[in-house]
What does this fold into?
Amino acid sequence: MNIIKVVKGTVVTAVLGIIIIAWSGCGGVSEAQMAELNTLRNEVNSLESEANSLKEERSRLEREIAEKNAKLQQCEKDKEETRANLKKLPTSMGSTEETEM
It folds into this structure.
């Protein structure tokens, strides 16, 4: 995310630099400069949109990981509980179930 901030900051700085140079130049902004400024603004908006979508995707993936980890912990808990219950069974039933786990 720091890279996105650096890129965003660089683009914004470049846009501001172009604006300052344009204003201090010959007194007016040419159509080419205005077009370049608009292009840079569009690029900034595009990068911000991409950064936001990546943040949303990251949040979604983190939620999925948390859900799967919770299920895995529950499964491990159930497995240990099952092992404990199997050990409580009389030994006359055989010990093949315990060795299979």
